[in-house]
Predict the 3D structure of the following.
Amino acid sequence: MFSKGQIIFGVLFFIGFAIIIGYTYRKDLKLHKRFYSGSIWVLVAFIAFILFISAIKYFFK
């Protein structure tokens, strides 16, 4: 499947990537709060739409 070196590389890459993403998110937190303050409602609408589609599929099998 995967060699030991590939697994080590994957784990180290994931850890490094997560650290870099976390750092840049913290650095830009002021901008996120300023420009994306209402974006939570887009996420709520998207989840509600997916649940609505799933309900339709479940009830009209």
Notes: The two ends are 39 Å apart (CA to CA). The mean pLDDT is 93. The first helix runs from residue 4 to 27. Residues 47 and 56 are 14 Å apart (CA to CA).
